[in-house]
Design goal:
heterodimer; A: mainly alpha; two-stranded antiparallel sheet; 2 strands; globular; B: mainly alpha; 14 helices; 73% helix
């Protein structure tokens, strides 16, 4: 059996699961799984770029995904009336002043001779800069957050079409990746892992606490959509008539129609990125990347700038995760900082890449779809399995109640065991690197 | 008098909590740094190992409490601690046998070990939540305070109270004992010396007849002990919640790196550097400043540099600065 036939069978199996889910849970649920699977595949593609191409270990995927989600809010949401006049410009100015202070401190530190004077001067600059920054920042934030806190209380977005948020999410993630990469790349591989772990936690902390930016745990709801709303479709006589022609009622037809539109958009982005990644993999740049991954010393001896190339590919991969994050928030229609869990958004993506086949773009896409399917279905199946196991136990026993209650945590265990098993027995994954 | 009040307030809100937290971080970072020195990878499962050991301790504590066994004024958890350590030792030896040994035999790259340890994190996380659930668990009993704020005020007549919790006292004392034992073991015993030799130069150690599997096993046993103690102390002092142990990973790694990965002394110093920075940066200084400054200059804000929600950011920023300025850490660890 040739490799391409095998790949075809694998993909066909995964796609065949969608109608199967539809059988049991309806097309609405099945299409939702498909859409999330497509987004997961894009995340996996980004991580594959970092790990599969370059051997970089990023444990902060969650952070980049969340930055993408923030972009959807900042671009798509309408401007909060009066917020910019009240304090928006003050916030931006204070952030700029803060950045300027750090810039001046670094500049001065670079120019002066080492010693006590330098430390004192740099410290003084930082203290003064911090006081000015806080003096401007705090009142501005208060002013913004006091504008109808129950409804807005934040700056709002730019009111642009939400599709624009997708590339912007990529840019935000790329910016964060640049800061991390600049510090941690070129050192031992573990340091990048730890630094990315940190940035992810901090991005989430910022989203949860900076109400002026993202409304914090109050969540931003009603992010505009790139596709029509169901209710409008249901009121559209042409649509209702056409749905009746297919023999479905207007409500079901509208939800499915909207999900299919999303599906088309996501599939387009996925195919585009996949094509780009394949081109990159087979270009001289891709060959150089893999050469660096397989033997850094040899590649360096050949005159390749290992650290710069690593930085490049790290930023690209993170940007793809940011795009996927923006797409996910668009699909959900809301930004809920509380739902970002490292186990779901970092480690699950890792499992996708490794199970699918690190170093192979098709493998990453397959892994993304497959593992998301398993994750989504694992919730119901796990509960059923647990009920089956405990069916022999007497009703009302404490053990039975505990086991059924804990079934949700079995998913973590299963995914962890799966990762360990694949790493051990099939480290090249389902579709190995060629 | 005001200055004295300021000092008392400072000790109460900054120095004592930071000492306790620093001890917990130092114990955690020691475990990370030992694994790094001997097995040569960053163990991402360390936080969840701590959670597992603490969980076993919590369960045994509950058992003792149901039997009515207690230590009087001290928490019953201290009595259960040895069982927690044994449980944790069994766990780490099993994971080493089932998971890590294979990659050691293969001489896999460190980054593979890190990914594998991530898989172990996943499994442990699921296991702990499966057994004890994801919620907060209370297992502290006994006397709450060595000195309570009110007794201190009555004793000294100062306006500020100084509360010294039993858990804080136990944390600091235990940390001192454990660290002293560990250093005695590493520097004075034959096994400890063989461990240091193996960490310094693997090939040379093998040539001189040191059994690597034995060194690895003993390292895991020590790490299990350290992790459980750190986990239980943290749980007693704050509360036991599985997810917080995962979040402790960042400050623990930051401590180990600030001190220099692979250097036990550095891990301790790093733990205190991180703890003190975290507490001082997120503490609202208003009270202390009001005592020190003349009345006319008293601040009307909280004088808090960062809100406590950003305490993770403190360890992260310190980590970035160390990586930029001195990647080998304060005490020159082995890794660049």
């Amino acid at each position: 059996m040739s490799a391409s036939v095998k790949n075809l069978i694998l993909f066909a199996t995964v796609f065949a699961m969608i109608p199967l889910i539809a059988q049991f849970q309806g097309w609405n649920a099945a299409l939702f799984v498909l859409n999330m699977g497509l987004i997961s595949a894009i995340m996996a593609l980004g991580v594959n770029l970092q790990w599969g191409f370059a051997g970089l270990f990023n444990v902060g995927i969650m952070g980049f995904v969340a930055l993408g989600g923030l972009a959807a809010v900042l671009v798509g949401m309408p401007v909060t009336p009066g917020a910019w006049q009240a304090g928006g410009f003050g916030i931006v100015a204070s952030l700029f002043l803060g950045a300027l202070t750090i810039g001046i401190a670094i500049f001065v530190a670079g120019r002066m001779a080492k010693g006590w004077t330098r430390s004192l001067v740099v410290f003084g600059i930082l203290v003064v800069g911090f006081l000015v920054y806080r003096g401007l920042f705090d009142p501005s934030v208060e002013a913004v957050e006091s504008i109808e806190p129950a409804l807005t209380g934040y700056l709002g977005g730019l009111g642009l079409p939400v599709i624009l948020a997708w590339p912007v999410g990529g840019l935000l993630a790329a910016g964060a990746a640049w800061i991390i990469g600049k510090t941690a790349l070129g050192l031992r591989s573990d340091y990048l892992a730890i630094a990315t772990l940190g940035i992810a936690e901090i991005v989430i902390a910022i989203l949860k606490n900076e109400d002026w930016l993202s409304r914090g745990v109050k969540n931003v709801v009603g992010v505009p959509r790139p596709v029509p709303y169901e209710i409008n479709l249901q009121n559209d006589p042409v649509f209702v008539e056409r749905a009746a022609g297919f023999g479905v009622d207007a409500v079901t037809a509208s939800t499915i129609y909207v999900k299919l539109l999303y599906c088309g958009l996501f599939a387009f982005v996925l195919v585009l990125l996949l094509w780009l990644a394949q081109q990159a993999l087979n270009s001289p740049w891709g060959r150089m990347m893999r050469a660096i991954r397989d033997n850094e010393v040899a590649a360096e001896a050949m005159g390749k700038d290992v650290t710069a190339r690593h930085l490049q590919v790290f930023i690209l991969g993170s940007a793809i995760c940011g795009i996927a994050g923006a797409m996910m928030t668009t699909l959900d229609g809301q930004l809920t900082p509380g739902t970002y869990q490292p186990l779901r958004f970092t480690f699950l993506v890792w499992v996708m890449v490794i199970v699918g086949g690190s170093g192979n773009n098709l493998g990453a896409v397959l892994g993304g779809m497959l593992i998301y399917l398993m994750w989504d279905q694992g919730e119901t199946i796990g509960l059923q399995v647990m009920e089956w196991i405990t069916s022999g136990m007497p009703d009302g026993s404490g053990v039975k109640a505990h086991l059924i209650e804990s079934a949700a945590h079995m998913r973590l265990l299963t995914i962890g065991v799966l990762l360990l098993l694949v790493l051990r027995f099939s480290p090249r994954g389902l579709i190995p690197e060629r | 008098m005001d200055l004295l009040n300021a000092i008392v307030a400072l000790s109460n809100f900054v120095i004592i909590p930071a000492m306790a937290y620093g001890s917990q971080l130092a114990l955690g970072a020691l475990g990370v740094t030992l694994i790094y020195g001997i097995l040569r990878f960053s163990n991402f499962a360390h936080g969840d190992t701590m959670a597992f050991g603490a969980m076993v301790t919590v369960l045994v504590t509950w058992l003792f409490q149901s039997w009515g066994v207690s230590l009087g004024p001290l928490p019953t958890a201290l009595l259960a601690l040895p069982f927690g350590i044994l449980g944790c030792m069994a766990l780490v030896l099993t994971t080493d046998r089932v998971v890590y040994k294979f990659y050691r035999a293969q001489k896999a790259k460190p980054v593979i070990f890190v990914i594998v340890s991530l898989g172990v994190t996943f499994v442990l996380n699921g296991l702990v939540r499966f057994i004890i659930g994801p919620d907060d668990q209370r297992f502290l009993d006994g006397e709450r305070f060595i000195i309570s704020a009110r007794t201190f005020r009555e004793m000294t007549g100062l306006r500020e109270g100084l509360a010294f919790k039993t858990t804080q006292g136990i944390t600091i004392l235990t940390a001192v004992i454990v660290v002293a034992l560990l250093f005695w073991f590493l520097n004075r015993t034959r096994t400890g010396k063989s461990m240091r030799a193996y960490s310094d130069n693997e090939d040379l150690a093998l040539l001189s007849g040191i059994n690597p599997e034995r060194v690895v096993m003993i390292t895991w046993l020590i790490v299990a002990g350290l992790a459980t103690i750190a986990g239980v102390l943290y749980g007693l002092d704050k509360s036991f919640k599985p997810f917080t142990y995962f979040q402790l990973l960042l400050p623990i790694f930051a401590s180990a790196i600030v001190g220099g990965l692979g250097n036990p002394l550095g891990a301790i110093a790093g733990g205190f550097v991180i703890a003190f920075s975290e507490v001082t940066v997120t503490y609202a200084w208003k009270k202390v400043v009001t005592y020190v400054l003349p009345e006319s200059m008293a601040p009307d804000t909280l004088v808090q540099l960062l809100s406590t929600d950003y305490k993770l950011a403190v360890s992260f920023v310190i980590l970035l600065i160390v990586l930029l300025v001195k990647p080998t850490g304060l005490f020159s660890g082995k890794a660049v």
